[in-house]
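Lay summary. Proteins are chains of building blocks that fold into shapes, and those shapes determine what they do. In this project we predict the shape from the chain. Here is one chain we studied, written as its sequence of building blocks.
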Amino acid sequence: MKKVLVIDGQGGLLGKQMVEAVRKLIPEAEITAVGTNTMATANMLKAGADNGATGENAVIVGARRADIIVGPIGIAIADSLLGEITPEMAVAVGQSEAKKILIPVNKCNNIIIGVGDKSTSELIAEAIRMIKEISRS
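And here is the predicted shape, written in a compact code that computers can read:
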């Protein structure tokens, strides 16, 4: 069983959609939701995550244990998500041995070239396809 760590901040809406999609397409996955704030965590738990935690240490510990980490690209960039991602969080994500599926959200001064104007739904669908592929290996 793959351990999927979903990390999100602000309102946790992208993370909520990711949890719902992973739960639907890979029901056997163990999903841990880590929010940078309690609202994000609560929304991901409501979406069906098995476990949930909030804050910097939860990201650090979760990144060590995960097989797959998924979230907006900002989770790997210090001070992104309006400052919610600490340098320690970004390092934990970056140094994790987990496969990382980073959704290219062009916000918070992080602009990803070559992505195009895909909707959040399209990006999540693409991320889910990748998670499904990785979970089979």
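What the prediction tells us: DSSP finds six helices and five strands in the chain.
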